[in-house]
From TrEMBL:
Keywords: ATP-binding, Coiled coil, DNA replication, DNA-binding, Nucleotide-binding. It comes from the Archaea. InterPro entries: AAA+_ATPase, MCM, MCM_4, MCM_dom, MCM_lid, MCM_OB, NA-bd_OB-fold, P-loop_NTPase. This is Minichromosome maintenance protein MCM. It comes from Geoglobus acetivorans. Pfam families: MCM, MCM_lid, MCM_OB. The keyword Nuclease does not apply. Belongs to the MCM family. Residues 276-482 form the MCM C-terminal AAA(+) ATPase domain. Residues 247-274 form a coiled coil.
Length: 611
């Protein structure tokens, strides 16, 4: 093995002399505590000695990090002080060291890896004793004991008088900040319906307390295993966790999508297509019959408006919120699930909440170690994506109040016990709700039959009411459609064995009627491309049309209208029109966009106001 304190001394003096001097300067002025030296693995360590040291770090991190630490102590610096308590932190690992949480195996235990994910939970930062100081209760001698993880251990006996009575002295013990976090796989990397997997990470020193739930991070560290179970009842099954050595916080953009030149060509072609809006509508839940307006609204939501920062610092969201309320069995849940499959970065949950964290965020005391823990809810995990919340009317009371802030300011503030945080929740919300009393009563105002406050309702840019009234024509068409989709499943099976070219072609023609016009994969790239590159601005004519419509609506709105027309609707109108222009990949919002959106807003208002 190449690794030794001496070789690390050489490495640090070659690449990090400035850093060493800076730290030495701080030590010489009397600053205490742990100090980090960040080592760029890819740029420096993989080059030094043909990368042997890097390989040794990956395969034998415990010894190598210890060598590196002792190597730092040996280095020279301009202040001529000893660099004690320095922690080398290794970041920027080669991509080959990136392991998916779900791929972690026994072979990775005690190896140095990089894990990427979204932070789901963080505990408060607490000091941890690494070296405990004791006074001998008999002769008064000071004894220091290095501590392992777990229960505080006093010395066995006093080296001077052999007494076994000791008093613990916290102020003379060496403490280090510690924090436990949980990271989980990215929502966008899950295939439809898969549950995300997660892993605990232990952080110590200056890397604790720097990240928030919802952050996307790479954690570099050592894989460890703990026997499952608590106390005396340890099991032979092991739980894996990561002992974090360094953290990289990632920029949260749509970068994860690789759009090839070929994809780009297809996208530009689609955007030129006269029938692009129809095509996109036809690509959203084609197995669900009807609801063209809702599907268009969802398309606009996928593309989104342009977020703005006003000169006074106020931020206006570009994300579009949509609410579907309706009788049971009208395919609300199905729609949400479908959008989950096609939308980049979407998180699906129900208001009742299968997780403890609910929609916004929760601060709870951990049962195991009594620490306060902050856990991100769906809207935080869906940051820069879409949160799909089924049965949103059944959400918890805490979420109800936090949702106002989350939907408008797109942040979630938590102030409880040791936790004080403002989490980001820059996502669009697509919610579904059932009527309070099972089914809609046609003779009562709709708004009163939904278990959501008017202030919350007004934060949705569009609300659609889906009623299940018998209508012979529609019912017949719906039944035919459902039967056809169901049969298609069988036919797809059959197709594998069809030899006649004619039969195959006619089967394919039928299948095309309920298969999306644009493949989900391409649609996802289309959305990502548009959001990344298109930021449309209103033309003068479009502006005029918006003002005209808004003033008209204000004039017509009844005093006791269930949805008051406010400046909120004006903002919604602009957002929706921008999204409409984005679909065409147009830099300009034209009158045609405004008209398209006005039609949809009218539909939405008519439905909700119907009484
Ligand atoms: P909801 O959440 O509104 O109570 P679901 O989404 O669970 O309803 O839908 C119930 C079932 O009815 C689903 O299997 C769905 O596919 C079917 N269904 C209802 N309306 C339609 C429709 N318009 N097109 C196709 N299937 C439908
Ligand atoms: Mg449902």
């Amino acid at each position: 093995m190449l690794s030794s304190p001496a070789i690390w001394r050489e490495f640090f003096q070659n690449y990090y002399q400035d850093e060493l001097n800076k730290i030495a300067g701080r030590i010489s002025t009397g600053s205490f505590g742990v100090r980090s030296i960040n080592v760029d693995v890819l740029s420096h360590l993989t080059i030094f000695k043909e990368g042997t040291l890097a390989e040794e770090l990956f395969s034998n991190p415990d010894k190598v990090i210890d060598d590196a630490r002792r190597g730092i102590e040996l280095t020279d610096n301009i202040y001529d002080v000893k660099l004690e308590n320095c922690i080398p932190r290794f970041f920027n690992l080669p991509l080959a060291r990136r392991i998916l949480i779900r791929d972690l195996r026994a072979e990775h235990i005690s190896k140095f890896v990089a894990i990427e994910g979204i932070v789901r939970k963080v505990t408060e930062v607490r000091p941890k004793i690494v070296e405990a100081a004791y006074f001998c209760g008999n002769c008064g001698k000071k004894v220091r004991v290095y501590q392992e993880e777990g229960v505080l251990k006093p010395p066995y006996e006093c080296p001077a008088c052999k007494s076994k009575r000791f008093t613990f002295v916290p102020e003379e013990s060496v403490l280090i900040d510690s924090q436990r976090i949980k990271i989980q796989e990215y929502p966008e990397n899950l295939k439809g319906g898969e549950q995300p997997q997660s892993i605990d990470v232990y952080l110590e020193g200056d890397i604790s307390g720097i990240i928030n739930p919802g952050d996307r991070v790479v954690i570099n560290g050592i894989v460890r295993a703990n026997p499952r179970g608590q106390g005396m009842k340890k099991l032979t099954h092991m739980d894996l966790f990561i002992e974090g050595n360094s953290i990289e916080i990632l920029q949260q953009e749509y970068e994860e999508f690789e759009i090839t030149e070929e994809d780009k060509k297809k996208i530009l072609e689609l955007a030129e297509d006269e029938g692009i809006y129809k095509k996109i509508v036809g690509s959203i839940a084609p197995s669900i019959y009807g609801y063209e307006d809702i599907k268009l609204a969802i398309a606009l939501q996928l593309f989104g408006g342009v977020p703005k920062r006003l000169p006074d610092g106020t931020e206006i969201r570009g994300d579009i919120h949509i609410l579907l309320v309706g009788d049971p069995g009208v395919a609300k849940s199905q729609l949400l699930r479908y959008v989950h499959r096609i939308a980049p970065r979407s998180v699906y949950t129900t208001g009742k909440g299968t997780t403890t964290a609910g929609l916004t965020a929760t601060a709870v005391r951990d049962e195991v170690d009594g620490r306060w823990t902050l856990e991100a809810g769906a809207l935080v995990l869906a940051d820069k994506g879409i949160a799909l919340v089924d049965e949103i009317d059944k959400m918890r009371a805490e979420d109800r109040s936090a949702l106002h802030e989350a939907m408008e300011q797109q942040t979630i503030s938590v102030a409880k016990a040791g936790i004080n945080a403002v989490l980001k929740a820059r996502c669009a919300l697509l919610g579904a709700a059932n009527p309070k009393y099972g089914r809609f009563d046609k003779y009562q105002p709709i708004a009163e039959q939904i278990n959501l406050s008017p202030t919350l309702m007004s934060r949705f840019d569009l609300t659609f009411v889906l009623t299940d009234d018998p209508d012979v024509e529609r019912d017949k068409a719906l039944a035919t459609h459902i039967l056809k989709t169901h049969k298609l499943g069988e036919k797809l099976e059959k197709m594998k064995n069809v030899s006649s070219e004619y039969t195959r072609q006619s089967l394919e023609a039928e299948i095309q009627k309920v298969t999306p016009a644009i493949e989900p994969d391409l649609l996802r790239k289309y959305v990502a491309y548009a959001k990344r590159t298109v930021f449309p601005v209103l033309t003068e004519e479009a502006e005029r049309r918006i003002v005209e419509f808004y003033v008209g609506m204000r004039g017509k709105a009844k005093e006791n209208s269930p949805v008051p027309i406010t400046a909120r609707q004006l903002e919604a109108l602009i957002r929706l029109a921008e999204a409409s222009a984005r679909i065409r990949l147009s830099d300009r919002v034209e009158v045609e966009d405004v008209e398209r959106v006005i039609r949809i807003i009218r539909k939405s208002l008519e439905q909700i106001a119907m009484d």
